[in-house]
Amino acid sequence: MSATKHMTYREAVREAIRDALGRDPRVFLMGEDVGHYGGCFAVSMGLLDEFGPERIRDTPLSESGFVGAGIGAAMGGMRPIVEIMTVNFSLLALDQIVNNAATLRHMSGGQFGVPLVIRMSTGGGKQVAAQHSHSLEGWYAHIPGIKVLAPATLEDARGMLWSALEDPDPVLIFEHVLLYNMEGDLAEDAGPVDIDRAAIRRAGKDISLITYGGSLLKTLAAADVLAGQGIEAEVIDLRTLRPLDEATIIESVRRTRRAVIVDEGWRSGSLSAEISARIMEGAFYELDAPVARVCSAEVPLPYPRHLEQAALPQPADIVAAAKALVGGDG
Amino acid sequence: MTTRENKPRLTRDHLLALLRRMLLIRHFEEKCAELYSAQKIHGFLHLYIGEEAVAVGCMEALGPDDAVVATYREHGQALARGIAPGPIMAEMYGKREGCSGGRGGSMHIFDAAARFYGGNAIVGGGLPLAVGLALADRMQGRNRVTACFFGEGAAAEGEFHESLNLAALWRLPVLFVCENNLYAMGSALALTEAQTDIHIKAASYNMNSRVVDGMDVIAVEAAAREAVAGLRAGDGPAFLECRTYRFRAHSMFDAQLYRDKAEVENWREKGPVVRFEKWLRDTGHLHDADLAKIEAEIEAEIEAAVAFAEAGSWEPVEELTRDVYAGSAGR
Q: Which residues contact A240 (CB under 8 A, 6 or more apart)?
């Protein structure tokens, strides 16, 4: 077994960026405050000194402008990593992401691809209220032409970026704000990981808990509680939100015959709705109970801690939803 | 600065080539209108008639390695760039032999060999792409230029301002060409802009910016050559506001209730083709026989383009989802 290094998720992302910059001269990082400030979540701290202002490129507050420039640079032969501070700010760049990055290959008859990676933070829990806390990755997962990743572990934070950069199409990576300080041990030789399969983070036979990103730790905590009560929950980390690894989901649900989807996005018109529908399409006759969902309350995320926490999915909510399904089996 | 190298070459051959290119666009567009009425072309169709001098003049300043980003009114740019009329017409038809494989239609002409990056139909959406293409050239040490065409309507979009700022901030070799035809679809410039001199906005971003008579192909070529010389010398981006006019409707659905017929007629008299032809005749560069020969060649070229499109094939429905992602096959 190889040696390990203790680090945070933030450091794992930084290592991934540093590694990519070292591997490929076409790679550069561009975004608001990525250079002199060190990144709004300190992800790129120190990289400006190491790689210089051409490759650690501070941009004006022009999300549409610099995301579009990233698309153009990717078409021009570079491999840009564009950082957007939060998914809420990415809405200012929706035109470039949806109308250009996602369409150019198909619309040009396959002549122009956009090998671009866009990283952004997502999610609530830091009491920064309704314009910095939302989970809109499910929206992006609606769009053909882009891929959507949600690294929830140190291994994925370290390994998904290079795989995304090698992908010939635009890839969006969503980093949950509460994960940046997560600590753990990562293999010294940790490297690229696949970006097309879900992972079973905990095996179980009684129920499938399907989640991703910032909700993975909460779901694993809920699974621990359930185990103490005699319910063996399987926890699926989707990892890739588009394309969905439907095979892993369906295979798990066919075995456990019950499913709870845990998604920090809102329930209406959501990724959780999509997964639920796919389970109906692929495993309806194997189900012993209706699919359940634990999502954020349908409100703009409020500032005070007690209200914010009430709005977000919590382990107790997941436990309650799971027990309701298993109990329903009589 | 104007030097011997970036002055237009006023040889007879060059002048007749400019005329020929403008006439090719004019007649190609007239044919497109006819084919639209015959229901061979569908969807939106935006004709370049009246604005020919802008594309033809500007393209003279570009080399084969330079890039072009255009709008949904881009047939003129595509033809002036030298993309063959056949694949452009086949694209209008939606045929597989079209220059975007039929996927894009009239508004989305792409051609990798010509470094022609669309065909972008979101107003203002092409400008950031041009900035990125120029950034890639800069970072890879290539002395290339990216020309980005857009209408004056784009000046009201945030992406216009974001892109001009980025290009100037990073001193990137982008030639921004504003085709000011006075109407954003049906909204007159004065009804939509507080500052109607678009080049002044660009100058405020600390770049070379000037206005030129977009109905005068020689003036456009001269201005573009001068601007591109500056780009290649590392002066940062340049901005050309070309004052022009669209003789036809915005698209084939436009009843043109927003402008007087007299205004259109007045501009037609100042049209780029009629004016250039007259000047060529007055200066002894053009005779009836020359024009007849050019017109006959163009007619044959357009007939061949239509025949090419007619003979083209429809992409099998099984290939519907091909190229959504690299390597994605049909369903």
A: A147, A148, A149, A150, A195, A196, A197, A198
Average pLDDT, consecutive stretches of 10 residues, N- to C-terminus, chain B (331 residues): 62 97 98 97 96 98 98 97 98 98 97 97 97 98 97 97 98 98 94 96 97 98 97 97 96 91 94 97 96 98 98 97 86 43
Catalytic residue among A15, A63, A83, A234: A63
- Under 8 Å between Cβ of A155 and A190: yes
Q: What are the sequence ranges of the domains in chain A?
A: 4-187, 199-327
**Is the Cβ of A53 closer than 8 Å to some Cβ of chain B?**
no
Instruction: Report the CATH number at residue B109.
Output: 3.40.50.970
DSSP B146-212: EEEEEEGGGGGSHHHHHHHHHHHHTT--EEEEEEE-SEETTEEHHHH-S---HHHHHHTTTSEEEEE
**Domain presence at residue B323:** no
Token pair 């129920």 is at which residue?
A: A207
Closest to A105 (Cβ–Cβ): which among B132, B139, B326? B326
Sort strands A240-242 and A147-149 into parallel, antiparallel or unpaired. antiparallel
Judged by CB atoms closer than 8 Å, whether chains meet at B158 and A64 is answered as: yes
Substitution target from B161, B162, B170, B313 for chain A, most A beta carbons within 10 A: B162
Q: Do B128 and A67 touch (CB under 8 A)?
A: yes
For residue range A84-122, what is the model confidence (pLDDT) as tens digits? 999 999 999 999 999 999 999 999 999 999 999 999 999
Q: Do the domains at A4-187 and A199-327 have one common CATH topology? A: yes
Q: Do strands B67-71 and B116-120 pair parallel, antiparallel, or not at all (unpaired)?
A: parallel
For residue B323, list chain A residues with Cβ-Cβ distance below 8 A: 105-106, 109-110
Domain assignment present for B209? yes
High-pLDDT (> 90) share of chain A, %: 98
Helices (H) and strands (E) in chain A, counts: 13, 14
User: Annotated catalytic residue: which of A32, A83, A132, A264?
Assistant: A132
Give the range of the structural domain holding residue B138, as residue numbers without chain letter.
12-311
Tell me, what's the pLDDT at A1? 59
Q: Are A255 and A220 in contact (CB under 8 A)?
A: no
CATH of domain A199-327: 3.40.50.920
- Does any domain span residue B328? no
CATH class of A4-187: alpha beta
Residues of chain A with Cβ-Cβ distance to B159 below 8 Å are 64-65, 68, 95
Full DSSP string of A253-307 = HHHH--EEEEEEEESTTSHHHHHHHHHHHHHGGG-SS--EEEEE-SSPPPSSHHH
SS3 letters for A114-126? CCCEEEEEECCCC
Is residue B180 domain-resident? yes
Count of the separate structural domains present in chain B = 1
Q: Cα(B294)–Cα(B131) distance, rounded to whole angstroms?
A: 38
Dump pLDDT digits (tens) for A252-282.
999 999 999 999 999 999 999 999 999 999 9
pLDDT score of A329 more than 50:
no
Cβ partners under 8 Å of residue A228, min gap 6: none
Judging by DSSP bridges, how do beta strands B116-120 and B110-111 pair with one another? antiparallel
Neighboring chain B residues of A59 at a CB cutoff of 8 Å: 166
Active site residue A63: yes
Annotated active-site residue A132? The verdict is: yes
Per-residue pLDDT tens for A184-212?
999 999 999 999 999 999 999 999 999 99
Q: Is the pTM of this model over 0.80?
A: yes
